[in-house]
Write a structure and sequence with these properties.
The protein is an alpha/beta fold and 366 residues long. The chain is built from 14 helices and 13 strands. The protein has two domains: 196 residues, Rossmann fold, CATH 3.40.50.2000; 155 residues, Rossmann fold (3-Layer(aba) Sandwich). α1 crosses α14 and α8 packs across α12. The longest helix is centred in the middle third of the chain and has 21 residues. 42% of the residues are buried. The model has no long low-confidence stretch (mean pLDDT 93).
Length: 366
Amino acid sequence: MKVAIVHYWLVGMRGGEKVVEVLCDLYPEADIFTLVCDPAAISEKLKRHRITTSFLQKLGGVRHYQKMLPLMPYALESFDLTGYDLIISSESGPAKGIIPGPDSTHICYCHSPMRYIWDLYPQYRSAAGSLTRALMSLTAPSLRQWDVSTSHRVDHFIANSAYVARRIEKYYRRTSHVVNPPVDLARFEPVDAPGDYYLCAGQITPYKKVEIAVEACTRMGRRLVVIGSGAGPALRQLAGPTVEFLGAVDDATMAHHFAHCKALLFPGVEDFGIVPLEVMASGRPVIAYAKGGALETVVEGSTGLFFAEQTTEAMVDVIGHFEAVASSFRSEVAHSHAATFDTVVFRARMAELIGSLVATPPRLAT
């Protein structure tokens, strides 16, 4: 088959790009189409493929792509995918909006419908400046209409979690297969003696609610290490002397803290959440808000604990409970559980599922 892989943008190597890498393993001759690409920021594996970018690349897209959302539908529809038998779109930003050929099979691996025009639209809008808010108000309705209409260009959806599958059903009225994304667990190993601090890790954005962990640890006098870019003045003002902000760190430093923390504090709602699995692969438990993808990865009482309300008080309570039962958590149990999400598992499941879907006529949306 002639295969095309469509990804929203290639400006780093995060979870979405790791999925594209595995798709490249499955289809080593595939061509990649993306809105913008920064070659210095992607892996050698991706650069071995022919990468076609959109006209946004020439408009300074690598630096300003996030400001070009209203132009992205036009950019995606400008790609010529004539002659491709199989098109796999990797969707979180707009990617499924390409125009497939009449004889092609279009499979969309959906990390999430675009959260900044759907469920997180109020949060993104309130955090924006006045000019951006006005622009969002003008463009969001038409972008939602385009997003829904382009869901009918997809023959089969694969969601990265059951939580995302429910949102696909909610916004697009389409059913999905569920295949959890790959986690490169070979980089993580448990250690004999963890440290005396809690951890928050990942890019700091409003929906991740890092302030809940900061306030809870400040109130309790517990050490907290916060890793990730985006910690603004307001968040830092909440922090007491026991909270340390490290900013962005390299992979080795991140892996060290995964293995040496008491537990990961995970107060946000993620579509799936790679970081909790990486921490579990490092032998440490996860304390998570009981919603979203964490419900599909953390096992209550075995690899972590949940708290039911997204409040500082609830986190204070669950940290107290964790400290009373911390000795019952076993690093080998967490590591073994994380291994069921390894890249090898993802690759095998995707190969089998795509093979069956290509042989199956598409199910028309109702």
